[in-house]
Each structure stands twice: as C-alpha cells, then as structure tokens.
Specification:
Layout: H1 4-11, E1 23-26, E2 33-37, E3 45-48, E4 52-53, E5 56-57, H2 60-70, H3 81-91, H4 110-142
Antiparallel strand pairs: 1-2, 2-3, 4-5
Helix pairs in contact: 1-2, 3-4
C-alpha cells in the first residue's frame, strides 16, 4: 500500500514542525525545497528536504530515477458521475464564460445521470439506515 514511502524517504528528509504550517509551496526550478507559511500573511520559511551525502544534496536526476524505478504510475480515478452531475447543475452557472467549455462542466449523458441518481439514492439509504441504528442505540442507552 505505502510503497512510495521507501523511495521518498531515501531521497528526502522529514519536514520539521509540519503541523505548525498551513500553506506549502514548491517551485519546479528548485525541487526538494518547500516554502511554508503559518497563515496567508505569515512569514515564509523555506526548508530544503533533500538528503545530503558527504555535504552534497541529492541530485534531481537521482530522485527522478529513484521514483521511476520504484513507483508505479497512478491510475486515473474512476469517473464520479454524481460529482459530474453536481458540477453541471450547481457549479457551471457560476463559472466564467471562457471556462465553461472545460470538459469538467459538460452535461452528463442519460446513462451517467442514471448512475449518479442510483449512487445518490444508495448513499441516502445507507445514511438513513445508519441514523436509525444510531437513534435505536441511543434510545436503548437511556432506558
């Protein structure tokens, strides 16, 4: 499951006090260097996460080779028809005209709409079932 950890830990160090920051950024021209901020107006702190051997930081080529040899490319996620329907019905109207042609805002076809409605119905049914079970358990505790 966590195959990537070995490859990443070989190339990079753990980030110091990661939980004290909320905003992170990395530049393509400076790989391995992370700029962090505690908030939008906070002071920028940069951390070089590249491991160094004999005071020489890990090279970009080594990291690229390491990732290519140890990591399998991620498969694209399965289409979420419910999300596609929501994007078309609720979000598209607020999108500026120049971006409405993006495929993410396309109208779902009949089959996709049917699958979205089925998923929504199943989710609501599971939620109602869970709510009934929770309510029954709470009622049992009070008696």
């Amino acid at each position: 499951m966590k195959v990537f950890r070995t490859a990443v830990q070989e190339a990079y160090k753990d980030m110091k006090s990661v939980q004290s920051y909320q905003i992170f950024g990395m530049a393509t021209d400076n790989p391995g260097v992370v700029s962090c901020r505690a908030g939008p107006n906070g002071e920028v702190v940069t951390q070089d996460l590249r491991r160094s051997f004999d005071s020489i930081p890990t090279s970009d080529e080594k990291v690229r080779d390491l990732f290519e040899s140890h990591l399998d490319p991620l498969q694209p996620p399965l289409p979420n028809f419910e999300k596609k329907q929501q994007m078309f019905n609720k979000v598209r109207m607020y999108v500026p005209d120049e971006f409405r042609s993006d495929p993410i805002y396309d109208a779902p076809n009949d089959e996709e709409e049917q699958k979205a409605n089925e998923a929504k119905k199943a989710r609501r049914k599971a939620s109602a079932k869970k709510k009934v079970a929770t309510t029954a358990a709470e009622a049992k505790e009070t008696t």
